[in-house]
Amino acid sequence: MNSSTSSSPGALSPRSCTESSADSRIPELYSARKLASGDVEGRINALFNRVNAIQKKSGQFDLLLCVGEFFGNSPEAEAEWEAYKSGAKKAPIHTYILGAASQETVKYFPNSDGCELAENITCLGRRGIFTGASGLQIAYVSGREAQHEPAPSHCFTSKDITALVAPLLSNSKFRGVDILLTSQWPRGVWQYGNSPETDTKFCGVSSIADLADKLKPRYHFAGLEAVHYERLPYRNHVVLQENAQHVSRFIALATVNNPTKKKYLYAFNIVPMKNMDPAELVKQPQDVTENPYRKPMKDGKKEKPPPSMTGTEEEPASQFFFDLGQNKPQHQQRHGRKRQTDGDRPNYPKQPRRPPQPTGPCWFCLASPEVEKHLVISIGTHCYMALAKGSLTPDHVLLLPIGHYQSVVDLASEVVEEMEKYKSAIKKFCKSRAQRCIMFERNYRSQHLQLQVVPVPMEKCSTEDIKEAFMTQAEEQQIELMEIPAHTDLKQIAPPGTPYFYVELDMGEKLFYRIKKNFPLQFGREVLASEALLNIPMRADWRECKCTKEEEEDQAKQMRSDFEPFDFALDD
């Protein structure tokens, strides 16, 4: 094995600290079976005993990669290491460790550029690229981010990161590295994904996040937090805007032999990127999410809508809505919910930023005098729920922002957060009634976001039936509706201002169409009302489903009562 950055400071130079060459001991990495370990902290015997047990059961692995702190400070830890250093004991597998992550363990590393510390145990060094003869690339950065200059020997600096990244990115054929090893976590890696079992307030650093974003590792291992965290895989491209790329997996490992038995050893198979079929390499798993290190486009970078979209009439707003009026619905008053008027707002401890204001009258802003208050089901801080006027079914509701936002991709972060809470609540509500929760949004000929929620009885059809109905009717009307990964953030594929139609099925599947010119305004209702699904085709047009105000009041009252156990807004 050799170093691809051997000419730069800190790159791996696989040599013995006693000046004898270690090249003959370094595996060629043709095999795909690897092991990764969390912080060893001097428990070397425990680590290798576990490795021996695994290899006895599952066969030989060709490489062990250790992240975090390898050495310990106790007399017992020093004695264990002395046995390996002297040759009395030998590591049962080629083991590669990162450099010191604390001042106390610097003494174990005679050379910060990497060297063989004992037979089968090699320190990679401060940072560099470890490249096998098979083409497997392992990038690494040891230690913690330096807080000041000059940097302590157990810390890395921005210069280290630049020296590592620059040669790789200068190559036009660079697609990413196979493996990235870091001591510290990348800051914000949990965004868009599952949450780790640790306090994220002080977890990770931005420099490692930036490194991971640039190097696009297929596997990224880190330690130091004493927890096991396997994040959902994330993509390295923007859907529908960039060519598909491989996904990345971040895996944090716990401390070796920890008392709570958290996972500290990870076995995996990997074929070097350069040896893989391109189509196989970029396959996206079902649970892939957006890239946690990339922020969606800012509101100022709005995409200009097609010419055919400008000057077109909006769909009449009267399908929907409501009016705050002077009095709250009695259901809300019973629970002490009171919305303050504009004159009362200074009494709030802190106000969120004011949403964009409509250029003219808007039937969907909750403060609008035209709103029909009897249809309101629930009111939160930033969003509310209302019965749809001319509803497809008795429990067909709308989720809307209180302020003026045109679409989901325009929402401020605090509005998105509460919108997700409402979505979660209505899903639980539907599940309790043996219904599939189907949601859709049409950002076309409308000026205020309306997320339609239509429950479909499970006995009527399966999720696959619903998806097939949408795809079939889309094909018949020459609409290129496509399935997108469940964790896709719409902001990454539809910048603000982009007209689109979007469906979210009950099992998380998402369908998306970027509207290019004309689009049937009732498409979502038509599909759900079709014979294949709800079998109420006569209700496809909301204008054919009007009720008297008394009927609407009864329907809304019933819905409020049914939804009350799931209404988080009543507890605020």
UniProtKB/TrEMBL annotation:
GO cellular component: post-mRNA release spliceosomal complex
Boundaries of every Cwf19-like C-terminal domain copy: 355-463
GO molecular function: RNA lariat debranching enzyme activator activity
Pfam families the UniProt entry points to: CwfJ_C_1, CwfJ_C_2
Species name: Sinocyclocheilus rhinocerous
Low complexity: bias regions: 1-16
Family named by the database record: Belongs to the CWF19 family.
GO biological process: mRNA splicing, via spliceosome
Protein name in UniProt: CWF19-like protein 1
Domain (Cwf19-like protein C-terminal): residue spans on this chain: 477-568
Basic and acidic residues bias spans: 292-305, 551-563
PANTHER family documented for this protein: CWF19, CELL CYCLE CONTROL PROTEIN, CWF19-LIKE PROTEIN 1
Residue ranges, annotated region (Disordered): 1-20, 281-315, 327-359, 551-572
